[in-house]
Structures
1.
Amino acid sequence: MKIVLFGKDGQLGQAIQSIALPEDVTLIAFGRDTANFEQPQSLRKIIADIKPDIIINAAAYTQVDKAEEEYDLAHMINAVAPSVLAEEASKIGAWLIHYSTDYVFDGKKQGAYTETDTPAPLSAYGRTKRDGDEAISQHHDKYIIFRTCWCYSQYGQNFAKTMLNLAQTREQLKIVSDQIGAPTNALLIAKITEQMIDKISKNSIAAGIYNLSASGHVSWYDYAKTLIQTARDEGLPITVKDDGLIPVLAKDYGAKAIRPHNSRLDTSKLSTALGIDLPNWKEDVISFTKNFCKTQKEKNGLSS
Ligand SMILES: NC(=O)c1ccc[n+]([C@@H]2O[C@H](COP(=O)([O-])OP(=O)(O)OC[C@H]3O[C@@H](n4cnc5c(N)ncnc54)[C@H](OP(=O)(O)O)[C@@H]3O)[C@@H](O)[C@H]2O)c1
């Protein structure tokens, strides 16, 4: 089986490459240098030449605030390019696995969002991602869209790493306290992607959108508290004072893009389809933080 991966250098792309795939799978991975989503038409030849069985698209324009000023570029990468991938996948009968976001919703729902809830994005980024999801379902019928949220990992830039780094230089940090979601490790998304590949190869999965996040939910503020308290317990030289974590409302934080207050995703469709229970966000975040601290202490030459 041949799999083409786009976005190999992002946090999810790297997580996917770190997962051991079955021996009969050949993974051909592309980054921005060899497959530029700013020129979507150039993707057609790559797919036509390789004729993969599955295309995994982990490439995306993910700078949520900057997208407010770079809408056209974000739309090209997040909507036009995935649309081209769907068209080409359809021509050769390949499956397309793509990743969407909680930011397609306005966050006004009471309770967790399901796959059938209607997107109503608040931000330019959210609109481009919604348009990508819609284009895929219009052009192809063999697709899996994983709708995920609050992704972090050892790779690239993300909230968890930013907090753990800032907590070692600042005495005070202001964190948004009125938005909730489930921090989700890119490695979890990668493992579920692998299970989905297995289902696809056995022809035993229905195409469509599947919500994919860790279970439970938390605010950004309490998430940061968990990260920093765990790091403190692990002996990382934390400079944030005991009363130095300051909760702020999103409206007072001043981010350019508006984000949903409620990013909770109902994952029961995925759990049933794969026969799995998704792990609680807190266990994964604590385990990630312990590893982060171990690596950091090794780098700094401190004994663990
Ligand atoms: N991060 C989150 O919290 C989150 C939440 C929900 C959903 N998602 C979705 O999950 C997916 C993966 O996100 P991620 O966290 O792995 O993002 P990421 O770390 O920002 O990775 C995105 C990748 O896309 C590549 N890319 C950007 N512009 C490109 C272009 N013009 N041509 C080719 N490649 C380009 C980037 O290349 P470079 O490395 O060269 O910059 C990067 O490798 C995305 O679909 C995202 O919307 C993410």
2.
Amino acid sequence: MGTALVMALVAATATGEALFQRCYACHSLNPAEQGLQGPNLAGDVGRRAAAVKGFDYSPAMRAAGDRGLAWTEAELDRFLTDAQAVVPQTSMFTPPLRDPADRAALIAYLKGAR
Ligand code: HEC
């Protein structure tokens, strides 16, 4: 692995962590930390939508999970671009992440939290 690639990966990790500050007010990656405005995101990547027990999801998010929506990297990428486009009437309102590199870095960071 070349030095440039290693540096890029280090930068991507740092950026993902920094970008998570946009989510931090409502979401935790610490499985023990429940009771925030948004569901716990530990282990979220690859999991079915609306799977956190005891979290009060919107009817729209529950229906999406029942239909089989799962947070693959591709679906997360779409959700972070435009949450309402993936789950119309979701109760999550956040500014879209328009830069694909930002979304990739954030998803990589989420994947690391299991
Ligand atoms: C203002 C609070 C808030 C912020 C900020 C926020 N979210 Fe959310 N998020 C929510 C809520 C509330 C839900 C549940 C939505 C529903 O039930 O429709 C949710 C749901 C989700 C889900 C679906 C989880 C599941 O269990 O199905 C993902 C993934 C997610 N958010 C990722 C993010 C990421 C990544 C960020 C940062 C870029 C972020 N959210 C920022 C409030 C927030």
